[in-house]
Automatic annotation (TrEMBL):
Recorded GO MF terms: DNA binding; DNA strand exchange activity
Domain Transposase IS204/IS1001/IS1096/IS1165 DDE span(s) in chain numbering: 153-252
Keyword Endoplasmic reticulum assigned: no
Species this chain originates from: Spirosoma linguale (strain ATCC 33905 / DSM 74 / LMG 10896 / Claus 1)
Residue ranges occupied by any Transposase IS204/IS1001/IS1096/IS1165 zinc-finger domain in the UniProt entry: 33-77
Protein name: Transposase IS204/IS1001/IS1096/IS1165 family protein
Zinc-finger listed as a keyword: no
Amino acid sequence: MDLSPILPDHFQLIEHCVGENAIQISLLATQTVGRCPDCQRPANKVHSFYQRTLTDLPICGKSVSLRIHLRKFFCRNDQCARKIFAQTAPAYFSPYARRLNRAQQPLQTIALQTGARPAARICALIGQPVSHSTLLRISHRTPVQNQTTPTRLGVDDFAFRKGRRYGTILIDLDRHQPIDVLPDREGKTLEAWLREHPGIELVTRDRSSVYANAITTACPNAIQVADRWHLLANLSEVVERFLDTQRDTINQSILATLPATDISTTTLPLSEEQLPPSLTWHNDLSKLMVTTQVDCTSKSYERYQKVKQLQAEGHGIRAIARHLGFARNTVKRYWHQGFVPRQTPKRSNLYLYEGYLRKRWLEGQTNVKELLAELKAFGYNGSYTILANFLSAYPPLEVEPDLPPARKANSYSSRQIDRLLNQPPAKWSADEEAFLTHLLSEHESIRQVHDLSEQFRQLMKEKSAKGLAKWCEDAEKVSAYAGFVRGLRQDYGAVEQAFIS
Ligand SMILES: [Zn+2]
């Protein structure tokens, strides 16, 4: 077999051997003259031969290794400090390299496109086994291309490690590519970068004043645009926070639109009169208490102590949060508390579900464990014991009822509700539709908040900056939106741009 067309030029085949998984090829350099790397003078007096083993591209899934015999030459220039030098072939391999350039390039691409560990698995599959740490080294060695400063720039923060260290990423909005990463999310760092890269005409950013101030200082003529994604994320937060305060209302809608269990073919084992009188506010609610004790070995107590200690040493909230890796709000809460965080006993919300329990009991569901699971799905916050004690007053069933299994009830988090409401109703399932229709038709305040959210999204879609001003006036009157509108007003120029550009 003639291998010369696939071998590097100026190398002669000595021998080759094809194994089960690998091919070994021995080569001899044919050039008998070398050039001293220091004085550049040609030399042909051979000092010795040396061997290098390099990996080449695989052939038919078999890995290929080249054993290359090269010369060492004497430099005969008396003025030159170097006495001996080794023959090289920079077109094919670099000094100290373990694989040919042509074998290195695909590895670099695979590693950069997929990440080191997936790349290692792919390489093993195609007959070029490389460890993931080698691939990582190869991708780190990739030279960064010279970037021209974009005219339209996107700025956002990201977490190196969530809660601990954040950086800033800069995106070229025309090429949709990241162009730089800054080591923190401080205004000064961004300002310095912007000063070094003049010529930026438009910057999109989140709504934090840190970036806004840095951009205004460094390039006052650039148009600032509030990033649409962040605007919509903030809007969703408003709706979710509002829905969090409406938990009771939401549970009512869930209960009201429970999928009906078919009980028409069976007779009920009990009648309503046989159940104990319904629990009211006048009854003893103490048996519904969820008791909790302060646990001095608990994690939160330990965290509280750490914060208090650093506070006593005179550190600020930001510094403590950074040092301990806690959220700033957690530190702030502990900071202002002059006492050990004590968990007060709270009443279980079992009484909210009494109607449902009675209905299920009458239907024949007397299994406390299963009832507990059903209630938990609706947001019941108490324990098994509380429920079991409560149900002990209910009379046992005389006949084992033959009922079809109850369908699993849905529970919705505020986020899920917001997501569903932002979808076209055609995508809702039958259960979701019943629940959401009930929720919006029965509860005026929820519908109002939802309508405003939908209007905002629609205005953004239509790029109607004029409508935005009107929307702000309307939304301001709804307390859930007061803070959001105040934020928009403070950054109105950039927000308006998001509705124009
Ligand atoms: Zn020399």
